[in-house]
């Protein structure tokens, strides 16, 4: 058993309470590689922002759970080396699919876990979430749960269609499970294709897709039921069209990729939404930088040559999200 406290990590409790009160959101960036981890830490330190580093079950499979845990421990030390005396870094399990996965993360140093029972019948979601909460709270680990279904593919939890969260269920669910935060479904979804072209309108000048707005009425109804309770938004990449364009003009193929407009996320961050999940945008930043690099330097084959601009681009993206979208800059300590 390794406690996250020994690793210098923190849980989400205080961080979320401050974010809800202050009208901003904590960035939750997924990572699978060392370059993503370095870029996240550099961005968080430079902007003086708390940060959630999250790993999916797939990331654990890709990178190895032990390596990821040491990377998170390394992230804390790296932040200190970069001049941040007291970094606030959470190591979070994204979309935990079972009690066993959550337990294994808690036992190996995670400070926060998500149990995603959103695809289960309501009572089963409550039962598994409650079981995880009871285990996690013994070690002061915080738990995120999910009500409502997001479309898109997540490792083990996949859904064809989204179903908005039912506001009438949230009091019963949060009271009976004891969860610390709740991910809700208001129209976001995972990946780089959040809406089908037929759900969007097209900008007559640029030809770019304009997605339908998020269901802010559902968010407001949830907030009314649970005043001040920490709400989480998954699937919150904006799919920057400049990256899509670079990718598509340098050998890639991402037709009609579309995300959530940043002004809608800014609006959400000012509400009880205190954690915003971003993964796809980092993948796009990395891919665009690498494709561009290879087009300009076909003779390069040292990974450091193309991973350096990729890391720099991700750092730029993370700083932009923190400062211009989530508003968590300067909120450390
Ligand atoms: O919600 C899903 C995250 O973007 C993680 O994606 O399961 O492919 O690692 P992944
Ligand atoms: P995106 O695919 O929109 O980046 O969402 C990531 C996410 O929700 C991780 O849990
Ligand atoms: Zn997610």
Helix- and strand-based class?
alpha/beta
What is the general shape? globular
Count of DSSP E strands? 12
| Rounded mean pLDDT score | 95
Ligands in the model, by name, code or SMILES, are: glyceraldehyde-3-phosphate, 1,3-dihydroxyacetonephosphate, zinc ion
Question: Helical percent range?
Answer: 40-55%
Strand content: 15-25%
Tell me the Rg in angstroms: 19 Å
Instruction: Name the quaternary structure.
Output: single chain
Strand order of the largest sheet: 1-2-3-4-5-8-11-12
> What distance separates the N and C termini?
28 Å
Topology:
Blueprint: H1 13-22, E1 26-30, H2 34-47, E2 51-56, H3 57-63, H4 65-81, E3 89-96, H5 99-107, E4 112-115, H6 122-137, E5 142-147, E6 152-153, E7 158-159, H7 170-177, E8 181-184, E9 201-202, E10 209-210, H8 216-225, E11 231-233, H9 241-249, H10 262-269, E12 273-278, H11 280-296, H12 303-326
Parallel strand pairs: 1-2, 1-12, 2-3, 3-4, 4-5, 5-8, 8-11, 11-12
Antiparallel strand pairs: 6-7, 9-10
Helix pairs in contact: 2-4, 2-12, 3-4, 5-6, 9-11, 11-12
């Amino acid at each position: 058993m390794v406690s996250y406290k020994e690793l210098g990590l923190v849980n989400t409790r205080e961080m979320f309470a401050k974010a809800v009160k202050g009208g901003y959101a904590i960035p939750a960036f997924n990572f699978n590689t060392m370059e993503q981890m370095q870029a996240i830490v550099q961005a968080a330190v430079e902007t003086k922002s708390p940060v959630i580093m999250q790993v999916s079950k797939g990331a654990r499979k890709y990178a190895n759970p032990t390596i990821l845990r040491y990377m998170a421990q390394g992230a804390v030390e790296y932040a200190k080396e970069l001049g941040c005396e007291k970094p606030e870094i959470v190591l979070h399990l994204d979309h935990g699919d079972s009690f066993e996965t959550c337990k294994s993360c808690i036992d190996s140093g995670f400070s926060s876990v998500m149990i995603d029972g959103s695809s289960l019948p309501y009572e089963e979601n409550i039962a598994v979430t409650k079981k995880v909460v009871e285990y996690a709270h013994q070690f002061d680990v915080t738990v995120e749960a999910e009500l409502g279904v997001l479309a898109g593919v997540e490792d083990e939890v996949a859904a064809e269609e989204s179903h908005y969260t039912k506001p009438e269920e949230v009091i019963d669910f949060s009271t009976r499970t004891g969860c610390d935060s709740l991910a809700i479904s208001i129209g976001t979804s995972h990946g780089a294709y959040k809406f089908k072209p037929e759900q969007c309108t097209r900008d007559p000048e640029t030809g770019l897709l304009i997605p339908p707005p998020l269901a802010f009425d559902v968010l407001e109804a949830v907030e009314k039921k649970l005043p001040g309770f920490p709400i989480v938004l998954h699937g919150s990449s904006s799919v920057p069209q400049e990256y899509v364009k670079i990718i598509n003009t340098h050998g890639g193929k991402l037709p009609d990729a579309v995300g959530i407009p940043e002004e809608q996320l800014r609006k959400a961050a000012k509400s009880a939404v205190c954690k915003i999940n971003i993964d796809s945008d980092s993948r796009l930043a990395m891919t665009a930088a690498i494709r561009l690099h290879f087009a300009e330097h076909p003779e390069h084959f040292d990974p450091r040559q193309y991973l350096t601009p990729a890391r720099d681009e991700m750092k730029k993206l993370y700083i932009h999200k923190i400062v211009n979208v989530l508003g968590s800059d300067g909120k450390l300590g």
